[in-house]
Write a structure and sequence with these properties.
Layout lengths: L4 H9 L1 H16 L5 H14 L3 H13 L4 H10 L1 H4 L1 H18 L1
Helix pairs in contact: 1-2, 3-4, 3-5, 4-7, 5-7
């Protein structure tokens, strides 16, 4: 799995914080009935809304790994248009396409 260098450096520098952060993420995922694929698509939508290239790309990889199709990922991006605006949606679309092209 790809991890940015800064993420790895943070994990090495603050292992206890990273461990607790990861535990919190796992607890959040277990706190409700949503299947993993839908959790990953929702996380993609949140990443798009925050205009975070790294989070968008990571979320796409996770969504693909949990069984989301290219079409489902594409619709998730399109749904952001009326909430986050055209420039943000287009940027996210570019980041998503970059990941999808590398997966092929």
């Amino acid at each position: 799995m790809y991890l940015p260098k800064i993420y790895e450096k943070f994990a090495d520098s603050y292992p206890e914080l990273m461990n607790r952060y990861q535990e919190l993420g796992k607890a959040c995922r277990k706190a409700g009935p949503l299947e993993e694929k839908y959790q990953d698509l929702i996380k993609l939508g949140i990443a798009i809304g925050s205009n975070s290239k790294g989070a968008v790309m990571s979320s796409v990889r996770k969504a693909l790994a949990s069984g989301a199709s290219d079409a489902e990922i594409g619709q998730t991006v399109l749904l952001s248009l009326t909430t986050t605006g055209f420039p943000n949606m287009i940027a996210a679309m570019g980041w998503v396409m970059e990941v999808l092209e590398k997966q092929k």
